[in-house]
Write a structure and sequence with these properties.
There is one protein chain. The protein contains 9 helices and 8 strands. The chain has 346 residues and is an alpha/beta fold. The chain is elongated and about 100 Å long. The protein has one domain: Alpha/Beta hydrolase fold, catalytic domain (Rossmann fold, 3-Layer(aba) Sandwich). An 8-stranded mixed β-sheet has the order 1-2-4-3-5-6-7-8, sandwiched between helices. α4 runs antiparallel to α5. α1 links the parallel β3 and β4. InterPro entries: AB_hydrolase_fold (IPR029058), Hydrolase_4 (IPR022742), MAG_DAG_Lipase (IPR051044).
């Protein structure tokens, strides 16, 4: 990484003691803020190193962990694609734990979150209870959940036969590829990106091109369903700025109408500072597209606007505190001043 010092670390999940693999990238220059990144299904943190390097150039510390059952967050090789018992809850808990750690390490520093794919669904679940722990949220490649979709039906159909939580289903894998890849030519996974080199690299990466377990798929559905549920929103920070970004050719959002419905759900939850953008000729892995620099710039511009807002709020808060202190001081000094005046008059 050219613009940052990369520090790998591990932490034990508070949820179930799974060892989580993570990395922190600290710029060599001045620090503007922190960006916590949450990746999606069938990938790992190393795919985001180029984006992290770009953010480091903009002065942002970045932190990313391998989601449970992905990359290095496994107990053994066969755990790839297995999220463990109640893995959806663990998925969200892990995000919160990383967030708590980075905020403790860098107090009084704004923390933003950029989440992609299933990570975006997990991030929406996260803000249900922790929206006061970040200062802005960028959601990339958002997934739309429907209980009636072919993918949901396939997962439920396989699960009904009780093959075991570690079963890897060809039926589910093929259904997903059929639904997401039906408008694109071969090779497999072309729905992820319009750049054939990115697709080739994905297909040759054993930490990406794998068939998740039934457990992995079921927990994926749980996260997606929970992220769209109207319940559980504590709404501690309704002014949290949120930006949705997706590619117009991203089949994971199903359609632009469904994309707007995802935004509407957060508005109904009570958030009043939501923006969005759809990029032409881009698919699901929008940070890896041919013209991804345009996406990077959009995110950077968004982060800096939120940073300005964060600084303004701190100045306003400081001014309010100063005014309160001045008022208290004046109230305390008033009796003494009156007493002095009375003494002089005598």
């Amino acid at each position: 990484m050219l613009n940052a010092d990369l520090k790998e670390f591990q932490l034990t999940s508070d949820f179930d003691e799974l060892v989580i693999s993570a990395v922190l990238a600290v710029p060599s220059g001045d620090i503007n803020g922190i960006v916590q990144i949450v990746h999606g299904m069938n990938e790992h943190k190393e795919r985001y190193y180029p984006f992290m390097d770009y953010l480091a150039e903009q002065g942002f510390i970045t932190v990313i962990h391998d989601n449970r059952g992905h990359g290095g967050s496994i107990m053994e090789a066969d755990d790839i694609g297995f999220m463990f018992r109640k893995g959806g809850e663990g998925f969200i808990s892990d995000i919160a734990q990383i967030n708590k750690r980075i905020r403790a390490a860098y107090p009084n520093t704004p923390v933003f979150m950029v989440a992609s794919g299933l990570g975006a669904s997990g991030a929406k679940c996260f803000i249900k209870g922790y929206d006061d722990c970040i200062d802005g949220l960028v959601l990339l490649g958002s997934l739309y959940y429907s209980p009636f979709s072919p993918v949901t039906r396939a997962i439920n159909s396989v699960a009904s036969k009780r093959p075991g939580s570690r079963f890897r289903s060809e039926k589910i894998f093929d259904t997903i590829d059929d639904c997401l890849g039906k408008f694109f030519e071969d090779p497999i996974n072309s729905w992820r990106c319009s750049d054939p080199d990115v697709v080739l690299a994905f297909n040759e990466d054993q930490l990406c091109n794998f068939k998740p377990t039934l457990n992995g798929y079921q927990e994926m559905l749980w996260i997606m369903r929970n992220s769209q549920s109207g319940t559980g929103w504590q709404l501690k920070n309704p002014k949290l700025p949120i930006r949705f970004i997706s590619g117009k050719e991203d089949m994971a959002m199903v359609s632009e109408k469904k994309f707007m419905k995802l935004i509407s759900k957060l508005e109904k939850a009570g958030y009043d500072s939501i923006s969005h953008r759809l990029f032409d000729n881009m698919r699901h892995d929008i940070l890896m597209e041919k013209n991804s620099i345009n996406v990077h710039k959009d995110i950077a511009k968004t982060l800096f606007s939120w940073l300005d807002r964060w600084n303004e709020e701190r100045l306003e808060a400081a001014a309010e505190v100063a005014a309160e202190v001045a008022a208290v001081t004046a109230a305390e000094e008033a009796p003494a001043q009156q007493e002095n005046e009375e003494t002089v008059n005598e």
